[in-house]
Amino acid sequence: MKAAAPLRKDGQARLAFHAPDCPPVPSDGVANAPAEAPAGRNVSKAAFWAAVETAGAQGSAFLFFVVFARLLSPHEFGVYALAMAIVGAVNMILFQGFGDGLIQAQRVDDEATSTAFWTNMMLATAMVAGLQVAARCAQSWFGEPMLGPVVAWLSLLCFPRALVSVHSALYRQSLDLRIFAVRTVTGSLVGGLVGVALALAGFGIWALVVSQFIQSALIAAIMWRATAWRPRFLFSRPAFHSLFAFSRHFMAASVISSCIDDLASVVVGLSMDFTAVGYFSVALRVLRAAIIVVMTPLQLVMMPALSRIAHLKSQFGAAYTDMVVVTAMVWLPLAAGLGLAAPALIPLVFGAQWAGAVPVIQAMSFVGLTMPLWTFSGQALSALGRPDAFAGMAFWQLGLYCAAFPLAVHGGVVAVGWTWAALSAVMVPVSLTRLRRLSGLDVGRLLADAARIALSGCAMVAAALAVEGVLPAGAWAVAGGEAAGLAAYAGSLAVLLPRRLTRLYAMARSIIPVLAFRRRQVQ
Hints:
Elements: H1 37-71, H2 74-95, H3 98-104, H4 110-142, H5 147-154, H6 158-173, H7 178-200, H8 205-226, H9 237-271, H10 274-307, H11 313-350, H12 358-364, H13 377-383, H14 387-408, H15 413-439, H16 443-470, H17 475-496, H18 498-509, H19 511-522
Helix pairs in contact: 1-7, 1-10, 2-4, 2-5, 2-6, 2-9, 2-10, 3-6, 3-9, 4-5, 4-6, 4-9, 6-8, 7-8, 9-10, 9-14, 10-11, 10-12, 10-13, 10-15, 11-12, 11-16, 11-17, 11-18, 12-15, 13-14, 14-15, 16-17, 17-18
């Protein structure tokens, strides 16, 4: 990894934390690199390493989650999920705030990076203090003695998150994501193993808390060891105002987006009991694991990649459409398959005590039809230099969810799951309308491809149910149905979207040159 570039005569420094094949930014400050082959390879490698990170981390995290679910009760999981809902929102300020301001900037000097770092450390201190007060209030509101101490301890995670926010942004800006795979997988494995050992020793919910601390500490240690950049003891007010102008909107939107799913857990906890929170949290955790594996690699590279062609509206719209459609082609069968397999899969994997989560997962799996159509809009709007539009859309979404979830809880936790899926559909026209106005996105083309994917999904579900209906009930029936459904889905796509299917296959093959590149480096 290269050290920071020296200052130019005009007092600025080009951010030099880029991969060797990343082309320089033109002197006029307009990045046109993605149109060139080297940058295209860089984006492909970034997406590959992001996929390695998410697949490895989610695979290990989900395995440990299954173990924890068998060792702990739904009530304990409900308390932990609610505590993470309270703490998680403020952590998003540190993860997606001033760091993303650095990503958006074309040129960054040492004053900007150090200012962003110390701002995040001050924010972390303020957040910890606020969460200590919130812990006492939450314990009183929810009437659960364990909730307050858990929130109080989890609030301290703000510090390791702040320590790596700028380092992470520098790597993301350069599309060099190999270190993310190393840090996340290592932290997840070590933290999970220690947590399981503590759970077996009878530490209960505290095993989950300690696991989070170990994971965050390892991530911070690996990131600091991997790069030569260190913050200097300086704070620039002009740099702060420049970063704040972008980050304030992005922070607000990111926090709101993070709060939305957690809002449902809070409403369920206030209106029902912690067992219901546990059912909803398990259902959400299963869906989130799938979402992270499929969508997070693209989210990590979308803003820095699209920022480079934001001035080329036709290329921007075409690139965004390609990303969304290819993601939808992968996401829909995964979400539908989870819904179909849930009755057999959840009791088998998590234990019979979690059977109440099955109908919740089945209801929530209907987001397979809609989520890719709007979930990337924030990254696209920010790449266009309009984080204010992202924030405005997030505020609108928060208001909608605040109105819907308190009504849904009267129908039980399954009704909350249906509401969660329905609100995803409502967000599609909101986000696409905003993107069409700001970027000239061809919404008709995107929706036409999405409709064909949805028809293929219907064929998948029909084939799966038909095969399950003729086979004896059990695991073999589920496996046979899933196999038949996937075959029907692939066949339908080959007829309805042959070019997109070819594109998906080409993207899968692009992993091979990346691996070859790595082998040559090792040799």
